[in-house]
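Internal QA ticket QA-208
Title: Verify multi-chain structure generation after dependency bump
Assignee: T.L.

Test input:
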Amino acid sequence: MEDRYEVRDITVDRATGVTVVFGDDMTATYDLLELRLNCPCAECRGLRDRDEAPWPKPASPLPLAITDASLHGAWGLGIEWNDGHATGIYPWESLRTWADGGKPSFSPDSGRGV
Ligand SMILES: [Zn+2]
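Actual output:
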């Protein structure tokens, strides 16, 4: 694997976002809202395909926050949100492409499914 797709350090701030240090020393910060709106799971992708926002829903607690985050193998980061949503897994490779100025695009096999 290329250095740029390896992850050296991850800082999760439950109220603001996630900071990732990649193997080539590039540091990227992902805003909480951006992460939630681009959640890679099938459900959120379906909503975006219909031009509907994955968040907030009528019952969503405000403000948005992360309740838990965990490594999903060497592959990506699983995030659990304070509205109970936890199906999205954010692959490092996609996060890096996003940080490099690409669009946040997650491959169809991202996410745990529903
Ligand atoms: Zn989702």
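Spot checks passed. Residues 97 and 103 are 7 Å apart (CA to CA).
Status: verified.
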